Queue: 2 jobs
Job 1
Amino acid sequence: MQRQTTIAKNSEIQRKWYVVDATDKPLGRLCTQVAQVLSGKVKPIYTPNVDCGDYVIVINADKVSLSGDKIHNKKYYNASGFPGGLRTRTAGEMLKNFPTEMIERSVHGMLPKGRLGRQIEKKLFVYAGPEHKHEAQKPEVLEIKL
């Protein structure tokens, strides 16, 4: 007798809320683990074509660390589509002025592209400071392994 592979259905999925403190955590390691929890790859019921992940709240995004000289050398690009419309920022500028966008961009690159990826991305909430507005959901603390 063969075992059947179980396919998760949207109605059967139980979603949890997690809060992650980004203080002194390396950006890449933090974002890879957040992306895995968001997409549900840490659950035994993971199904690639179904959003079976959990909600993640990242606090203290302005205190995330970058190794080496990335704070000066790593660049973030935005293009308006018009001639001369390329805007370049260093990781130091992003960390100072847009710390939440830095983590959102990093996690976005690790999620699937398309409709499912955009749906998964909506379950990520990033805050620069230690406060967040999701206390009513009673989030559990998620430890990031380094």
Job 2
Amino acid sequence: MRHTTEIELANLEDMALANRGIITPEEVRRVTVKDALVDTGATRLSLPKPIIEQLGLAPFGNAKARTAAGIVDRIIYSTVEFTILERKGSLPVTDLPEGAPVLVGHMVLEQLDLCLDIRKGLIYNPDHGDDWIEEAW
């Protein structure tokens, strides 16, 4: 069964510039995706190239990823702030080809203390009620 969620994305570097008054808050590059795929087989937050370009993210590294098509090279881009179910987090993102859905991987779910319920979709971790319990680093 396919589960999707709305995710709001913002360029974290732009947000820092806005906080320092260098750009206006309206200049922060943002994107809202209504149907991001919750993929428990994915590790990271992965975005198609057009969204990466829209957010103005900068490449800074490479990673290998295991996909259904085998091992592929991915580019790691600068950090975004993301919001799902009113909870915010931040992570660098990896690229996907144009036309691919946004993939919300388990790093995102763990950071926001969310779980995928087969019947309800994405939910707050039931072991924690409505409390947001973060893992200690």
